[in-house]
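Because showing beats explaining, we let one protein speak, sequence and backbone structure tokens together, and leave readers to judge.
___
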Amino acid sequence: MRVTVIGGGIIGLATAYRAQQRYPRAVVTVLEKEAQVGRHQSGNNSGVLHCGLYYKPGSVKARMAVSGIRRMIAFCEEHGIRHEVCGKLVVAVTQEEVPRLEELHRRGTANGLRGLRRMGPEEMREIEPHVAGVAAVRVPEEGIADYKAVCAKLAGLLSGAVRTGARVMGIRRDGAAWRIESTAGDFAASLLINCAGLHCDKVAEMAGVDRDTRIVPFRGEYFELRPEARRLVKHLIYPVPDPAFPFLGVHFTRMIGGGVECGPNAVLAFAREGYRMSEVRVGELVDALAYPGLWAFLRRYPAMCWYELRRSLSRRLFCESLQRLVPEVREEDLAPGGAGVRAQALTRSGELVQDFDFRFQPGAIHVLNAPSPGATASLAIGDEILDEGERRGLVPVTNGA
């Protein structure tokens, strides 16, 4: 059996790693267009270990998060990768947010999280002395990890199976197999797994899958607290998300390499790898603007989209958002940070696809949406992909072959 994975991000690498373990006689290959693995979403996220507080009980995301965080922590421990289970506070700033906080507590409990604790103002400020708010939920299982190191370790464990500089140019059916044309040569696959992240819909289209949902890139921009202000945040501090809006909201995250990150906002990126506003790829921008789902999304959330754009251009507005959680933060405490681009699947009706989205063809599995907790749950997602492939008869040889 030849298993070819397109995409050398953390989900593609984890899936290939699990395929190599499960089918030791299979030929496993990962095709990555960049010179290194984990260059995009996997290497530009917040580094948080998500354990499943927010997700609807029974959803794939909830199941993957709870099992995935435990497997990721075990992987980091086994291979000496930097990580820390430092815990998180989710804070209700006003009394109006308390019912939503209680719903998060209920969801987390239903999802099997351990040690959740509801806190009042005094107790939560024993953990985070500078935080504002009237109530909080302590999530002790959450933490941070070095996902770039995870990607590098997975690539090293794949026994030379990773081909970098291999941009996929075309995919066609060749009898019972797939033929993948790339800038590093042609490759055959009896099982093709598309984990191309920001380009997954276009890769799927090459294989004949209709782009009824489309990847629309949203850039998340961060600030970092200057060294003298880092005392204001000890762990992870998150807001209670507003169900009227599709994004989580800005938060504070301790970084595994030191320091504290603040953000992100969410604005339309003008390229699928557009980490700065000045980065524009006309073809990719036209592809997004020509999609009815983007305009439906903008009509659904006009105030939020306008505010996110203004906040992207205004340090003052960004700081005001952060001050809801930690009032002592000042504009002068904020230093420019990094940015990431989220591969968000969007439907024609303007709805963000919230759960994982897998599509299937004979001999092919396409991962068309893998939002947070994608990095945390990557090892669990790899097994989920292969399990589903076996259930659907897409894996032609089993029992270790």
The first strand starts at residue 2 and ends at 6.
